Amino acid sequence: MKNIGTVLLEALKSLFKKPVTSEYPLKKREIHGSYAGMIAFEQNKCIGCQICVRNCPANAIKIPKLADKVFGCEFSMANCIFCSQCVLSCPKKALHTTDNFELAQIDKSKLIVKLEELSPESKSVIPEPAEPKSDNPASQ
Amino acid sequence: MAKKLVIPIGPQHPALKEPASFDVTLQGEKVENILVKLGYNHRGIEKACENKPYLHDLYLIERVCGICSHSHATCFLQAVEEIAGLNVPMRAKYIRSIIGEMERIHSHLLWLGVAAHEIGFDTLLMYTWRDREIIMDLLALLTGNRVNYAVNILGGVRKDISEEEKGQILKAMDVLEERTKYYAHVATEEITIKKRLSKVGYLSPEDAVKMGAVGPTGRASKITRDIRAEDKYAAYGEVDFKVISDDNCDVFGRAVVRIGELMESYSIIRQLIKKLPVTPLKVPAPLRIPAGEAISRYEAPRGEDIHYVRANGTDKPERVKLRAPTLANVQSVSTMLQKGYLADVTIVIAAIDPCFSCTDRMIVAVNGKDEMTWKQLRQHSIDWYKKNRGVDFTKVKLGIK
């Protein structure tokens, strides 16, 4: 009977420790820069090559032509599988991932976002792109 | 003589996390026969792969399993890379192995918690899942995602491991090793666990071979087979590790094997990090893969994963066949449960670490005729549902050619 309750001591010790779980949403967790969250779009860099549209495995991204040499980015959060293949594919680095993970919506129509309208100064967008260190992104 | 009873367990059951059905025939409290019924989660992934380019297939294959997603993706890519004749750089192979081992750690810690939960030892569940967060955070740091890491691309990997990240990995390994030693002590010394798991779900080595048990299920029955050691894929040829096996042949043995493998995984990751060579991360890959076929094997956390890919020179594969480890292991459940008790059914099923959604495949064999076109098959399913279920599917239009 010596080996009964081997976890007991550990369990008792835990009574005097801080809880492991965090108080989300009161306290937000720190997310590192390489997190594959919401996609951000830089309109002035986009050349409208449509590689991201072709390579997206989930049909989540569309690049409509807004004016001559000006392109928008229509992004569906419902379709996106957050693989960040578009970020990897973009030859001009116009797309990058952000740490924004709170993407749930009650209204379905809000799931489709026009990324060019989101201001780059918005809190969720990190100015520094998460660098996918690829030599030739267009080859994928 | 007690009356025979047939108890249906599943398809929806609190003890099973996924839909699968077991018809247990009972003689008193003893199990006389168990009938395993799969097929509740067929997703048609193999067929879908044939209609998508390789780049999209990669992400689809990654979603075969939520827990061993990297295993499936790597296994598929190994086959495609073999057909295309791509020489994956060593650093990419090392990173694939590191992520693969991390996945094994997270899967085995998860299993340990689930198994503890099935036997009513929820304290251990809470502790193992708490520590599993360390490895999940590490995976999120390295790849950007907690699950479905998407670190593989055709011809290499997409993300490098920096010096700072190396330090973080090693630090996490130290913490986890310390914790795993404690779990090893709890799982092997604690008398309640020992008594609950010993002699439950006995699978003799002969039966294990006969039933084709793979991975930790087979290794707990003295079958010392591990694809990492046999078919040194990725960077496993460059590290030293033991193939853990056990001679208990029961659920207790399966727990011992998995805990032993955790310790081996920490050592493998440390060796890989230490030796990480400096090479490019990937080689340029073509969009069209030349005609050819290849079989690739991979030691997923649950056992041997087999992928077969046939390419026909276009950007889409002609055939993709995958055999998830659970399909090999699930047959042995009926042998394990013979002369067992009803109360042991859930823990014995949980002990093979089942993943039923990865397993569900379609086999075309109707009335002895084993060849049907997709059109005939669709017609057959429409007729079957009309006759047996009274549902008319003729109006449903599907894009199957």
Quickly list its features.
heterodimer; A: 140 residues; alpha+beta; Alpha-Beta Plaits; three-stranded antiparallel sheet; two-stranded antiparallel sheet; 3 helices; 12% helix; 14% strand; elongated; B: 401 residues; globular
What does this structure look like?
With 140 residues, chain A is an alpha+beta fold. Chain A has a domain of 96 residues: Alpha-Beta Plaits (2-Layer Sandwich). Chain A is built from three helices and seven strands. In chain A, strands 2-5-7 form a three-stranded antiparallel sheet, with no helix packed on it. Chain A is elongated and about 80 Å long. The C terminus of chain A is likely disordered. Chain B contains 16 helices and eight strands. Chain B has a three-stranded antiparallel sheet, with no helix packed on it. In chain B, strands 6-7-8 form a three-stranded antiparallel sheet. Chain B has a two-stranded antiparallel ribbon with strand order 4-5. In chain B, strand 7 and strand 8 form a beta hairpin. In chain B, helix 6 packs antiparallel against helix 11. Chain B is globular. Classes of the chains: A alpha+beta (140), B alpha+beta (401). At the A-B interface, loops of A face helix 2, helix 5 and helix 6 of B.
Number of beta-strand segments of chain B: 8
Structural class call of chain A reads alpha+beta
As for the number of domains of chain B, it is 2
- Reading side by side through the largest sheet of chain B, how are the strands ordered? 1-2-3
Just name the CATH architecture of the largest domain in chain B. Orthogonal Bundle
CATH fold-level assignment of the domain at 30-125 in chain A: Alpha-Beta Plaits
Shape descriptor of chain B: globular
Percent range of helical residues of chain A? 10-25%
Evaluate the radius of gyration of chain A.
21 Å
